[in-house]
């Protein structure tokens, strides 16, 4: 089932996941995750041709509520765990004029 | 080690003015202080806050105010459930020192009922693991044998209750994270039906599977905790509406006429002989007490682990995207640019197990693999759910082991993720199907490690599930045994 997760695939998945990992980690995860994905090939045995997918186990329909004003977090509270903040905003490195992926 | 009173006894003693909340809380804090150097169940414990809350309760009682059903009862909270007192770390460097600005709904409910939150308990990082070994904090030890794991991910909550540091605790269960540690530690753990308990304030791992539930030394105490935490919450649109029954009053339902389903799929290769024997002995007891044992088939059970380890990581990869080093949590030093800020903060802040699951989830959702893995798993999930629907037309509860073995040694499976995942073989299907399930002690292996019996009930079938478990405990004494004091 599928291609094994070689080092190229692991690097690509790490990039998609926004995870910077070391060369050593790439090797270890390639081996470990290939084993896990190989195990998942077990699902190929199951005939699912006419089976609908289940995202949730129980029937859940949309839940509506009145659109009324309620108490909310203050900006001080929202910023209280921020690793970087300035003048009441979250601060990040400059994003303009820089090459980004 | 001496026995700590049960939740039922402590609440009654406080109500009858036989004990003050301060006295109960001090006793509990002393027990924590004595046990923690060798158990490591807690990651934080705010002595002053707990005692302050206790004196408020004592004052309220003196003034003759109405007191809640859990008044004076100390409880521990798994550290992925938000509390305004103390940090909420999720056992991860990513959330080291994270200070929640609100309480989880279940914490508000407990406090409104008069319970005293005494501290936060250890877990695998972001509840991903079966041993608490992936935690950023020291590994929790099994009180029955300190060289063994307490199980996971709610290992801290189960060990704290087993070591009688607290009479009860909350955990969370995404694939067995309440039941497996409860089994390994010889205590009772309930995974309620999906939607029975609000998840508001539970740090999300896999939103279609996660459920908060109670851990205690006996079924009655679990029912008392469930009474308080169950029910609809406007802040969690997946919490179920409808009346919540009194789970304590249902416990007296007799075993006579109860139908217990037994499936060969739960007694297969890999099941340890001593676990098999203890579980079958429990079934014989049920049968002798007038319960009918009914053979059932759950043909898709062998696909549950493969299905689960696609669905859960897929949801996790999405849920954990929020840890970006910007809004809260760990931030890498001197990032080159915004993308490096995200990637380095996540690469450094997450432990290897969390990274594995995020990558696995990203992979099964990625272009070209979505249908092959994620869509396929969602279809298999339908079949697993249908297996249970069919079975529950014929039986009231289904019995099985909780885990194939008793607690394993610390370090034994840490480098073999697949072996670790396979310890969840009997528990994940309840989460995939959204049904309720409980773990109760049913014996010990020759090393003296506890063995757990799992009972599963249909969605919103907690009343019959708890009654079946309680009636077993009335006839057995496994749950009254205490771990030794030695290291």
Short description:
Chain A has about 100 residues and is mainly alpha-helical.
Supply database-style keywords.
heterodimer; A: 101 residues; mainly alpha; Histone, subunit A; 3 helices; B: 487 residues; alpha/beta; Amidase signature (AS) enzymes; eleven-stranded mixed beta sheet; two-stranded antiparallel sheet; 15 helices; 13 strands
Strand order of the largest sheet of chain A: 1-2
- Our count of helices of chain B gives 15
The residue-averaged pLDDT of chain A reads: 89
Largest β sheet strand count, sense and barrel closure of chain A:
2 strands, antiparallel
Span of the ends, CA to CA of chain B: 12 Å
As residue ranges, the low-confidence spans of chain B are none
Shape summary of chain B: globular
Strand tally of chain B = 13
The CATH fourth-level homologous superfamily of the domain at 7-253 and 461-480 in chain B: Amidase signature (AS) domain
Give me the side-by-side strand order of the main sheet of chain B.
1-3-2-6-8-7-12-13-11-9-10
Catalogue the unreliable spans of chain A.
none
Name the shape of chain A in a single word.
Answer: flat
Description of the structure:
The complex is a heterodimer of chains A (101) and B (487). In chain A, 33% of the residues lie in helices and 4% in strands. In chain A, strand 1 and strand 2 form a beta hairpin. The mean pLDDT of chain A is 89. Chain A is built from three helices and two strands, in the order αααββ. Chain A has a domain at 1-45: Histone, subunit A (Orthogonal Bundle), CATH 1.10.20. Chain B is an alpha/beta fold and 487 residues long. Chain B has a domain at 7-253 and 461-480: Amidase signature (AS) domain (Amidase signature (AS) enzymes, Alpha-Beta Complex), CATH 3.90.1300.10. Chain B has 15 helices and 13 strands. In chain B, the strands form two sheets. Chain B has an eleven-stranded mixed β-sheet, with helices on both faces. The chains are: A mainly alpha (101), B alpha/beta (487).
């Amino acid at each position: 089932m599928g291609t094994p997760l070689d080092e190229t695939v692991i690097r690509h998945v790490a990039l998609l996941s926004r995870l910077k990992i070391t060369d050593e980690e790439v090797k270890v995860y390639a081996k470990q995750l290939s084993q896990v994905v190989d195990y998942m090939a077990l699902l190929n045995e199951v005939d699912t041709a006419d089976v609908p997918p289940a995202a949730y186990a129980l029937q859940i329909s949309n839940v509506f509520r009145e659109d009324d004003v309620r108490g909310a977090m203050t900006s001080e509270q929202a910023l209280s765990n921020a690793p970087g903040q300035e003048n009441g905003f979250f601060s990040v490195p400059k994003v303009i004029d820089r090459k980004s992926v | 080690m001496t026995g700590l009173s049960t939740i039922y006894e402590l609440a009654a003693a406080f109500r009858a003015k036989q004990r003050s909340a301060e006295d109960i809380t001090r006793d509990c804090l002393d027990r924590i202080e004595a046990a923690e150097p060798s158990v490591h169940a807690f990651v934080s414990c705010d002595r002053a806050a707990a005692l302050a809350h206790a004196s408020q309760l004592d004052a309220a009682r003196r003034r003759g105010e109405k007191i809640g059903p859990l008044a004076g009862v100390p409880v521990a909270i798994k550290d992925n459930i938000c509390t305004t007192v103390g940090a909420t770390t999720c056992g991860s460097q990513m959330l080291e020192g994270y200070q929640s600005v609100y309480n989880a709904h279940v914490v508000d409910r407990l406090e409104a009922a008069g319970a005293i939150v005494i501290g936060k308990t250890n877990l695998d990082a972001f509840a991903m693991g079966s041993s608490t070994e992936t935690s950023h904090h020291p590994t929790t030890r099994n009180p029955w044998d300190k060289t063994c794991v307490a199980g996971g991910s709610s290992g801290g909550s189960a060990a704290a209750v087993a070591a009688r540091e607290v009479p009860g605790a909350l955990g969370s269960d995404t694939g067995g994270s309440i039941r497996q540690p409860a089994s390994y530690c010889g205590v009772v753990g309930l995974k309620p039906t999906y939607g029975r308990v609000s998840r508001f304030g539970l740090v999300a791992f896999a939103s279609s599977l996660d459920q908060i539930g109670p851990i205690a030394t006996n079924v009655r105490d679990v029912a008392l905790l469930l009474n308080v935490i169950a029910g609809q919450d406007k802040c969690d649109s997946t919490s179920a509406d409808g009346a919540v029954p009194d789970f304590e009053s249902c416990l007296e339902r007799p075993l006579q006429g109860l139908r217990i389903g037994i499936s060969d799929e739960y007694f297969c290769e890999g099941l340890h002989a001593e676990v098999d024997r203890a579980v079958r002995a429990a079934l014989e007891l049920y049968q002798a007490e007038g319960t009918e044992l009914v053979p059932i088939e759950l043909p898709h059970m062998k696909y549950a682990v493969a299905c689960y380890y696609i669905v859960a990581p897929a949801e996790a990869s999405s849920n954990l995207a929020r840890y970006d080093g910007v809004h809260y949590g760990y931030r890498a030093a001197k990032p080159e640019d915004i993308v490096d800020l995200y990637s380095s903060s996540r690469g450094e802040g997450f432990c290897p197990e969390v990274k594995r699951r995020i990558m696995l989830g990203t992979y099964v959702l990625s272009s070209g693999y979505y249908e092959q893995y994620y869509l396929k798993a969602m279809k298999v999930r339908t079949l697993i759910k249908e297996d249970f629907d069919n079975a529950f037309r014929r039986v009231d509860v289904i019995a099985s082991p909780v885990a194939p073995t008793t607690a394993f040694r610390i370090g034994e499976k840490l480098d073999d993720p697949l072996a670790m995942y396979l310890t969840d073989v009997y528990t994940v299907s309840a989460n995939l199907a959204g049904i309720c399930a409980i773990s109760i002690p049913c014996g010990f292996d020759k090393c003296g490690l506890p063995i757990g019996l799992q009972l599963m009930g249909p969605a919103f079938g907690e009343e019959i599930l708890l009654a079946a478990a309680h009636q077993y405990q009335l006839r057995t004494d496994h749950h009254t045994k205490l771990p030794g004091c030695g290291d």
